[in-house]
């Protein structure tokens, strides 16, 4: 088996398979390589100038971020999806879920029994919150350290392959949420190999990635290609692309999109980006990007909340402008997502009285809809911010940071904020899968209706009555924000 590592910082390098070290040979451009006897399932570490580290491109970390890497042979995955043709952007209805809290098992296999029901609902693709290996067993996944290694607590590489294969059998695509803007706690194990990080730029979560380096570009791009090639993923959601900095003339995310499509034609590239920045779809060639503005206007109109980033939202005319944006299919909108629920102090879901109007506005909108797990039946359990940091200093800093984040919010004191490290915070966030069957029927009916309606929409707002009217073809949505009611009217006249 050939072992290759980009380690320009090293003066000598070896790979340790089991208990034996095998010298690597410098191959140029900071790459070290050798052919060594090894098979799938063998543990290994790279030894750089006498110090052993896991592989930055490890395919599996069965003992977590501090354990050895393990050889994975993706050709041994068992696939039955030879007839699967992927999912088209025009048909996309996304269902975002967190593997650890979606089922009682908290695993890839735990998702499988629910796939048929999601397809029957009208969903066309599930989107998994990040599954790359992060510190501990519990977390949202955005602090991943080993980007190539499906999280062991979820079921590792084999479990992910089984889930993707089962999703395709159920008629569902699979999008994977990936993080290329930073590496989580434990990043020193990555930095030991080379200049992965830079001080020329900064992110809110940690050191910025150094995409001026070819080796770092390849770390991200080859990772993206791996998911669509070896795990048959139908596309990717790129996290916080505003924090992915590149000083080269051609942005790394433009190159990534091109090479992913070369690896798998038809793969979808979607991105999270700050509101008002359209570079993903206008400059980098991505298929679609999150458009949180619609959520913000809808949320403030219903709740009156204006804390934090909600301050500039809340007008009915602003909501209308969002419904008129083009190209609609390249803008992803939602009523709930992991950020808009989980980044609330208590991770609380919208009020019961808001469910119908929220559903109708977002599902009837011409943009591409995203559902957050449980919203389709009115899940009442929260989705809270939870972590399982294994470094005590990082754990305490996370607790204090969470409290500080909400200290200016009048509704909360520091003690009110759930402790992200407490296992109960995680357990409270697991779905009940119990709710309102009538609400689920509404989701099913409107998602079916979407499939026959033209994409174009005409929207208007009446301020005195606080009423939104949206017309698509022969169907009109009338949403009364004062009464929190909404209905669809069929026929040529909205009256």
Describe the 3D structure:
- The chain is an alpha/beta fold and 495 residues long.
- The chain folds into 2 domains: 75 residues, Immunoglobulin-like (Sandwich), CATH 2.60.40.10; 368 residues, TIM Barrel (Alpha-Beta Barrel).
- 27% of the residues lie in helices and 22% in strands.
- The protein has an 8-stranded parallel barrel, surrounded by 4 helices. Strands 2, 3, 6, 7 and 8 form a 5-stranded antiparallel sheet that branches.
- A hairpin with a 2-residue loop joins strand 2 and strand 3.
- The protein is globular and about 75 Å long.
Distance between the termini: 71 Å
Instruction: Provide the β-strand percentage band.
Output: 15-25%
Fourth-tier CATH superfamily name of the largest domain: Glycosidases
- By CATH, the architecture of the largest domain is named Alpha-Beta Barrel
Number of DSSP helical runs: 15
Radius of gyration (CA) equals: 23 Å
Oligomer: single chain
* Name of the CATH class of the largest domain: Alpha Beta
Uncertain residue ranges = none
For the biggest sheet, the summary is: 8 strands, parallel, barrel
Domain count, please report it: 2
């Amino acid at each position: 088996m050939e072992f290759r590592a980009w380690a320009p910082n090293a003066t000598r390098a070896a790979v340790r398979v089991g208990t034996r070290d095998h010298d690597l040979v410098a191959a140029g451009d900071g790459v070290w390589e050798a052919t060594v006897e090894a098979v799938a399932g063998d543990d290994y570490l790279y030894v750089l100038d006498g110090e052993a580290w896991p592989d930055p491109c490890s395919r599996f970390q069965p003992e977590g971020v501090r354990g050895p890497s393990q050889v994975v042979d993706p050709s041994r995955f068992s696939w039955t999806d030879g007839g699967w043709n992927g999912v088209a952007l025009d048909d996309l209805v996304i269902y975002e879920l967190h593997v650890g809290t979606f089922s009682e098992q908290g695993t890839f296999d735990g998702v499988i029994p629910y796939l048929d029901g999601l397809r029957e609902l009208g969903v066309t693709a599930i989107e998994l919150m990040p599954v790359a290996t992060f510190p501990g067993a519990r977390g949202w996944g955005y602090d991943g350290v080993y980007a190539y290694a499906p999280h062991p607590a979820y079921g590792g590489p084999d479990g992910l392959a089984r889930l993707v294969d089962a999703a395709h059998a159920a008629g569902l695509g699979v999008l994977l949420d990936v993080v290329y803007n930073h590496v989580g706690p434990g990043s020193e194990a990555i930095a030991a190999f080379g200049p992965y990080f830079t001080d020329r730029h900064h992110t809110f979560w940690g050191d910025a990635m150094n995409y001026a380096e070819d080796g770092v570009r390849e770390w991200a791009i080859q990772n993206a290609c791996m998911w669509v090639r070896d795990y048959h993923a139908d596309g990717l959601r790129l996290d916080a692309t505003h924090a992915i900095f590149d000083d080269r003339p051609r942005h790394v995310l433009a190159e990534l999109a091109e090479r992913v499509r070369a690896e798998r034609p038809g793969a979808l590239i979607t991105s999270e980006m700050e509101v008002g920045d359209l570079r993903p779809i206008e400059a980098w060639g991505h298929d679609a990007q999150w458009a949180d503005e619609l959520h913000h206007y809808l949320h403030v109109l219903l709740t009156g909340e204006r804390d934090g980033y909600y301050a500039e939202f809340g007008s009915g005319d602003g909501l209308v402008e969002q419904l008129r944006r083009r190209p609609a299919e390249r803008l992803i909108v939602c009523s709930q997502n992991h950020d808009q629920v989980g980044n609330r102090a208590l991770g609380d879901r919208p009020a019961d009285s808001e469910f119908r109007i929220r559903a109708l506005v977002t599902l009837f909108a011409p943009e591409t809809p995203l559902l957050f797990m449980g919203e389709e039946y009115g899940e009442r359990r929260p989705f809270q911010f939870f972590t399982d940091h294994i470094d005590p200093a990082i754990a305490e800093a996370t607790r204090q940071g969470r409290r500080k984040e909400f200290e200016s919010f009048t509704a909360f004191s520091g003690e009110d904020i759930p402790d992200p490290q407490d296992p109960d915070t995680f357990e409270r966030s697991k779905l009940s899968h119990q709710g309102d069957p009538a609400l689920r029927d509404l989701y099913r009916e409107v998602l079916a209706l979407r499939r026959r309606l033209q994409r174009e929409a005409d929207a208007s707002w009446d301020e005195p009555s606080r009423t939104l009217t949206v017309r698509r073809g022969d169907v009109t949505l009338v949403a009364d924000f004062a009464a929190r009611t909404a209905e669809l009217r069929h026929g040529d006249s909205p009256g």
